[in-house]
Amino acid sequence: TKPPIRVAVTGAAGNIGYALLFRIASGEMLGKDQPVILQLLEIPTEGAQKALKGVAMELEDCAFPLLQDMVLTDDANVAFKDVNWALLVGSKPRGPGMERADLLKDNGKIFIAQGKAIDAVAADNARIAVVGNPCNTNVMIAANQAKRLPRNRFTAMVRLDENRGRAQLAKKAGVSINEVSELFIYGNHSPTMFADFTHAKIGGKAVTDVITDRAWLENEYLPTVGKRGAAIIDARGQSSAASAANALIDHVRDLATPGAVHSVAVDSEGRYGFAEGVWAGMPVRSTADGYEVITSYEMDDFAKSKIKITNDELVGERETVKDMLG
Ligand code: NAI
């Protein structure tokens, strides 16, 4: 049998955690023959630690053959010790009347501390996936703490947006989701994101040839994908959790599968017109130990104008947290 992979999950007693941990432990993320050790971090309050224990009790009660061990802690240095994957889900939600700048800064503090701890104690091959919002800026802050681990180990999740975008195209065209390919998300995980329908395909044909109503694509499709998170909160009274956990499973599984092509928020390195040093969604192809950005898509003026909007937002977020970038 294979040696176990250590997976840290922060915010493990939260909503996404509850939809995520059981699927990791059952082998859906890293393979049905891959033992895992879960290292679960929660804040030190009695309520959170007690809820975490409850989740761990349920994990135990599943008798998952692949779940070799669990660590429950409120200490980042314990949670990230020797981990191969760190899934940073926990973050502080926006409270009533709270400004976006305060949210960015409050969360920034969490990601400074966690970035430092990961760099100090995680395994040499550690990879980090940030879900906690604002995830593009949080991952940038964490990555800037790293002295040992290279920046390309740090990614943030735009896969939920890709999955949402594919589903909406399939629904409009009346085809199976499997017919939709090459739909990639550019930029920020926020309503400014650009779901690039201009290069996406349905049944191998350009989306724009299958869905010829350009006004629908620009004025209905893009806002529907961009504001889907808010629509879920409106309908459910809670933010998306099962679909977010599912997207994280997809994000990690595909990063661990050489050849997989998918949308990931990565260090832009100035690609596709994004500012150097911001983390932006773009298409990547997974490699044996990381990813390479797919740089071959030519953007037309419309796509460039959309990328500019989401890039401006990312640059603005970076400006707000510039004192936190080390
Ligand atoms: P939640 O509020 O149910 O759970 C978050 C958990 O994180 C709580 O249990 C909290 O105690 C914990 N936490 C807070 N600060 C922490 C810290 N410093 N260390 C460890 N744990 C900490 O929230 P939910 O629904 O699970 O969502 C988690 C995050 O994921 C939110 O920031 C949300 O905005 C984000 N999200 C991101 C998506 C994406 O596509 N990137 C999609 C959906 C949600």
From TrEMBL:
Leader sequence residues: none
Coiled coil feature spans: none
Catalytic activity reported: (S)-malate + NAD(+) = oxaloacetate + NADH + H(+)
Domain Lactate/malate dehydrogenase C-terminal: 159-322
Residues annotated as domain Lactate/malate dehydrogenase N-terminal: 6-151
Entry keywords, A to Z: NAD, Oxidoreductase, Tricarboxylic acid cycle
Pfam family membership, one: Ldh_1_N
The EC number(s) this enzyme carries: 1.1.1.37
Matches recorded under Gene3D superfamilies: Lactate dehydrogenase/glycoside hydrolase, family 4, C-terminal, NAD(P)-binding Rossmann-like Domain
InterPro entries to which the protein is assigned, alphabetical: L-lactate/malate_DH, Lactate/malate_DH_C, Lactate/malate_DH_N, Lactate_DH/Glyco_Ohase_4_C, Malate_DH_type2, NAD(P)-bd_dom_sf
UniProt KW Oxidoreductase keyword: yes
GO molecular function terms listed in the Swiss-Prot or TrEMBL record: L-malate dehydrogenase (NAD+) activity
Positions with a binding annotation for NAD(+): G11, A12, A13, G14, N15, I16, G17, N107, Q114, V131, G132, N133
Binding residues for substrate: R94, R100, N133, R164
Gene Ontology BP annotations: malate metabolic process; tricarboxylic acid cycle
Active site: H189
Function: Catalyzes the reversible oxidation of malate to oxaloacetate.
Protein family according to the UniProt entry: Belongs to the LDH/MDH superfamily. MDH type 2 family.
Protein name from the UniProt record: Malate dehydrogenase
Lineage: Bacteria, Pseudomonadati, Pseudomonadota, Alphaproteobacteria, Caulobacterales
